[in-house]
Amino acid sequence: MLPPFLRNSYHRYKADTNRFTEWLIETATSCGIKVEQLFKETKPTRPGKITKIPLKAYATLVNAIVTHDIKLPKAIKFVLERAIAIRKKFTIAFQTGKLDEKADAGHLHFISILENALERLSSSGPRVSVAEKQTPRNDDIEDQIPELLESLVLDNKPDAEADQKDGKSQTVHSRNFEIEDEYDLELSETFFMAFCLLSDLNSLRDFIKETWTEYRDGMIDAMTAAVTTNSAVLLGKELIEDVFSKLDRSQFPDSQSIPTTLYKLKCLLDGIFPNLGRRRPGDPFNLETLESADWTLAMATLFLESFIPVIQPKCSPFYRKGHFGPVDSSKPYSQRSNEEKFDNDREAALDILGEFVFFARVKKFDWLKDEITETMMGMMVTKKVKLEHAFCLQVLLDVGNALGAKKSAPFNDLRMTSLRAKKNLTSLLGIIKKCPCSSWPKTTTQAVQGILDFNESHLLKDFWLPLKSETAPGFKHIEFHLLKENPVLAGLTMYDMNLNVQDLGLTAINTWKSVFPLLHLYNLLEHSKEVATLEWKDLDLFLQFHDEKSIFIGGKPDGIEDSFKKFLLFWGMPATFVSSLLNGTKPGNSKLRQAVGTPRAIAPTTVLGTAFHVALMEDQKASFSVAIVEKVLEYLESEPEATSSNVNAFNILKRKWKSTKTLTPLQLLTTLRRNLATEEPRLLFNYIGLHERCLEFYDKATAHLHQKLVQYNGPDYLKDKEVPLIVFYIMHAAAMSAKAHREMFGKNTEIEVGSVMLRRSGDQMREYVSGKGGKGEVACKELRVFSKMYGKLSESLEAKEKEEKDVYWTAIEDIVDPKTLALYQYGQLDGRI
């Protein structure tokens, strides 16, 4: 079921009408009207009990309020307009047309009463008329958008529970109202609920299509698109479960009947008969109604129903492309005719459904599964078609149509990720053998090998191809067919692999303590006068991605003594030991190792990635869990507001969440997509490669400084081969040189005696990072190649375009007049229902 803070369209509609009714009653009561006489029940109502109000009583309440010249609050006007908009959308979509002009009189009467109330209450006082508000001129629409979106945060009393939390006692706000009309509704409220459900599902579809269009255009990465889509599908399934549990079973006996019933009803009211007027003999329905069949998900339901009889025991029904004739894919999907769209979708659906049958019969399928794959595999077992199956199939078709010729691009990205992972994990196994670490567990080595084996057998080779050949001999099977046809699964698998590699890279860095000492040394060398300018860009990016206050114990140190002190504290050394070292005590090697406590560890900065990684490790699913939702909401709570624009998608959501503690599914998904894209460069940062280069630098520095190190610390200074400790010896020697300099010449002397160890260390580091074959920005170069988002987070034209789209999806479910926002964003809304 949906989390309590998420609301579907019907819940929001009921809350809006309830809120407006509450305000009417409360305000009319303050004007002296005895509103109890208008109720069907004259007795005081208990909290939560439904109070029935005749619709004609609204006129009485409105008259009393208008007479007293009371202004309609902006928040109440907003919710009333929103309620009218969704009700009118339903009435227009299912109006009777030529069939029967009186069939929808009840719905029209209901809307007319509300619109009349809105107009009269809005005209009370110096307020802008409804007509002016809803028909803006193109030249001043940009000025109106901030005010329009500002109303999103004004509805700060979403329900009675909110009032109780505020400690307010308001009897009126605890009631639930049911409006009674003197006209009988030809289409019952159940049909309106089903319509709202399909409207929500289609909004999710539009959001998903735009998400993959952004991927196609290089604005986001495949992982962000896949995780966002998977979360949207999960929310869509929960929307279906939530609404269907409340539908009248006499009207809709099963969820499969929702698309078919509303499709037939739409055709009937439009005067078009789906089984007549077919242009081609093989068409299963009149393709003139394709738009309605698509919106109601009836076409996807038809594909599934026609496929179920094909499923036979011990047989996988793989589809031969072109079985129904050639499919013209030369034009973009939106520019094709209805016949071309249908042929394209039928072929794509039948092509992938056989894969789901095959994998549903594989006994040991312990691979990562996306929501679409798991849902469709379940249908192949039960052989029962439900609305959730039609929704999942249609989403898969939408993604493929949005990508067009780039449908296999996410799989190609996955292949590059697999090759990169193989290289890095193989390097890590080499490090484990070459530089063994006593605290590195064997189980982790086994995990590295396990990921490498899976990568080789399932991602670099098609593990299932031989089994498919046995199941259907003679059929020409395509390698990695499921991954190529399901971009969501390809993107999620890529996400899972990168999360595993990141986790192992950070584990290696924390176990060997390879990077942290070098960060302290690099910072010291950067600020040392005797060291010429040097730049290690990979370390700079590492610090940019992580909390330098944690690494440097409160912030970057200033001077050698402060640097040495923070370095010692980072290693977990006791304060007394640190003090003795700063005072000039020379510790023995054994005493030094005994003083080392528990060094600080670095944590991943991909907060959402970490939450998803836990879910993937537990059940091999990228579940949109409560923990992940909490991370998204924490992002809304903690991040500072941007000041660049009032029409900032993040600001809208942040203020709305703080004031109402409610979001719509699209608003939650927009925030998720935005944050996932921001995390992508951090996730792709090559920690294993940096770990390897740090160890390599320690070896070179040790060889370069060996004689000096033996002179200062004896031949056994690295007895246990703890190479990062070389930084301790360098900084200790530099600190003692600085201390001796002060004791000899005082603090104010102009004589400068630099540290030989620092100067030679700086020369060695400069040679390593900037010399011939320098390795100072390998990780940065990798990001420029593999990352879609690295370097694209600035205020570029592309970023502004992305921001405008985020505003659209942030506001589309809450905005009063979607066409107004669409004029600002795109020019016009599409022509669908």
UniProtKB/TrEMBL annotation:
<dbReference type="InterPro" id="IPR046539">
    <property type="entry name" value="DUF6604"/>
</dbReference>
<protein>
    <recommendedName>
        <fullName>DUF6604 domain-containing protein</fullName>
    </recommendedName>
</protein>
<feature type="domain" description="DUF6604">
    <location>
        <begin position="11"/>
        <end position="244"/>
    </location>
</feature>
<dbReference type="Pfam" id="PF20253">
    <property type="entry name" value="DUF6604"/>
</dbReference>
